[in-house]
Amino acid sequence: MREEGIPTNEEAAAAISRAVQKLSRIDHFLDKEDLKNVMSNVLKSIAEKEWSMPAFGDLDEMSQLWVSATFQSIPISDQSATRQFVNTKQSPKIGVDGSPLQPPPQLLREFSPSSSFSLSDVNSFDVGIVDRWDFLPTTMTHDQLVMACYCMFNDIGVISEFGLDSNNLIQFITSVKANYRPNPYHNWMHAIDVFQVIYMLLKHTTLREYLQPVDTLILMLGSLCHDLDHPGLNNVYQVNSQSALALLYNDASVLENHHASLAFQLLSKSENNVIGHFPQQLQQEIRKFMISEVLATDMIKHFDLVTMFTSHLSSGKPTFSKESKEDRQLLLEYFLHSADISNLIRPLQISRIWSDLLFEEYLQQGDEEKKNGLPVSPYMDRNSTDQIRMSINFVDFIGLPLFGAISKAFPEIKFFMDRLKENRAFWAERKSLQSPSIAPSVVFTLF
Question: Which among 28, 142, 186, 190 is annotated as catalytic?
Fold first, then answer.
């Protein structure tokens, strides 16, 4: 009879195998002592079931396809499992002259300066409206959210600390709002939702103790801009269609490069340039870290990012250091990526709303893929999708390792894991009621 907490031989072998795979990707970042510490802690870490990841082989065929295409950047057409899920008879509609299916990137959208509130209104704004983990931006108008966004900048203290011009900041926020498209999910509401999570993390955790003051501003600006001009069609679609953006960015983090580029195009305009008065060296540092954190929201970087973060926690180092640029960059990237998929840790009713909106956008992409003769991405075919199964897999394969690690490093948000488990339990219950003889369908209920 084995002692409680001691893995079986099979469990230990599997844990070591996973550890070696992880270390093979990040060993060049570690010295010998760090490597020793990682190895001595890895079994203990993986034994903490809250942030261990299920084996890839445990997933069903469609889910394996989804992971490979979304998180490992393996083209759908290169995967043998695609035949039953995609239309292979049609070829992408690329013009005879080689012109791309997608139109060229849009110019920055013009907008009318916001006149819906004045700076005097800020003093009367109740910050309690946004200072809560059950915040839902869809309860406010777009213009109200501009004021709420300004007030969050103000409440964190970056306006006074960095001498930001209030009118510039309002113009910048309004310009950002104008450059989000009215997609079901990747829109201005999503941008504010992610921004608000960053606000909460900065205000209610010890994160700022491990960052330089300017990192707070970088994180807030990056979260607001992280999905600028998202077309509602993901990187897989961009690459498969050889869109103008895919051609521009050579198929690498296509949308994330576009978002970051537009952010600095906005900041280059004098009326928006909230950092124009900073020394040139500081502006360059802001640009470097902001681009890095936005690019880290590309889901193909998820596993490497989680590996680096968990390895840091297991390395025996006391914690993160604000004097280390590497530590600061890792924190900025990890927290923005976490905020980007934080719908998983919202209360169930709110989490369901975001799940339904995301799936509507997925199905619209599937429609476009069929229309244009492209491979239909996993879970995006209206005739065979399964919101329940994908939601469970997303929690198990993505959410638990990601939020398990962050709650271990910052115990004050350990309740994230409770929320995650509650939301998973909802989907698991739905799955148990699902008839195996009927093709699952998505019902969009926006409460």
Answer: 186
